[in-house]
Amino acid sequence: MQTRHIIVDPVNPEEEALQEAAAVIENHGLVAFPTETVYGLGASAYVDSAVAKIFAAKNRPATTPLLVHVSDAGQVAELVTGIPEVARLLMQKFWPGPLSIILPASGRVPAVVTGGKSSVGLRMPSHPVALALIARTGPLAAPSANLSGRPSPVTAADVKADLEGRIECVLDAGPTGSGIESTVLDLSVHPFKVLRRGGTALEDIEAVLGERLDTYAAGHREALHGQVATRIIIARDEKDFKQQLDKWSGAGPVGVVYYNSDSAQGTDRNRKNYELDLTGRHGSLYTILRDAETIKLKTLLFSPFPLERDGITAAVIDRIYEAAGEHRPTG
Description:
By secondary structure, the protein is of the alpha/beta class. The protein has eleven helices and 15 strands. It has an eleven-stranded mixed β-sheet, with helices on both faces. The protein has a four-stranded parallel β-sheet with strand order 12-15-13-14, sandwiched between helices. A hairpin with a 6-residue loop joins strand 2 (31-33) and strand 3 (40-44). Helix 1 (15-26) crosses helix 6 (128-137). The longest helix is centred in the C-terminal third of the chain and has 14 residues, at 311-324. The chain is globular.
C-alpha cells in the first residue's frame, strides 16, 4: 500500500485536501490527521471493518477501547444513551480541547470500538483540520497514529516513520501543539475516575466538578517501556543526577534532559542536551524520545523533576516514568 502524503494548511485547511481524506474514510480506509495533542489515526466509528484496520495497522490488541472524535454535540447524542448534566458542564468548559469523556454507549457504537465494554470515550479536538475532517466524515474512532507502544507522533514524519505503507493517507498540518495526549475521565462510574492524566489539568476538572478525582491506569495508554531503544534513567535528586551522568557517560553517547533553556545549553561529541517544557506548551517528550533513537543515543538521563508537579506537568512526568518502566512515586 502506498501512503498518500497530503499537506494541508493548519488554520484554514484546503477543501480539496479535506475531500481527498474524507473519501478515504468513506471507502473504509485509514487517515492520520493532526489534533492539538498528537496525530490521530482515524476510521469511521460506525464501520466495524474500518475500525478493525486500525488495530492491524498499529499492531494493537483488538480488545482495547478506542476514543471516538466528534466535531459537534449532535454527533455525541448519537453515540451515547444520554448526556448527564455533569458531562454537559465539562463539554461546555473544556471542549473543543484535550479532554476525553467516557459515557454509556448507544447501540450504534460497534463493540470493536468499545473493546466489548458498555461505555465509549468521546473527545472533541480543537485543531481546525481535525474538526473540518470530522464534520465531513462523521465521528472517527482514532487512537494515536503510531505503532503500538511507540512514542506518540507529533509530526507527519513521525507518523510515516511508523505507519508508511500501512495506512492510506496522512494529512500533514505540521507539528501538533502540546504533544501530550488528552486527559481521560470516566463518567460512566461513580465516583468518577481519571483513567489517564493529559492535556487538561485535573485541578481544572475538579474545580468544575466540585470534588476530588481518583486516578488509576485502565488501558487508555499504550505502554512505552520496552518499545524505545534508548535506555531511560530518571535522577532522583542532584546528587543522583551527577552520579548517573558520570556512570552512563562512559557507556556510550548520552542525552541529558533539562527543564529550562539555561541548563540545556551546550553539547559535545558524546553528549546531547535537550530542553523539555514540563508544562506541555513547548518541546515534546515524544520528539526527544524519537530523536534520541534516531541519533542512536545509548542512554537518556532526565534531570531531577521540580517539586511542583501539578497540572500538565504531572501528565508529562507520568509518561517519563512509563518510558523508563518505573512506577511514579506517590506521596
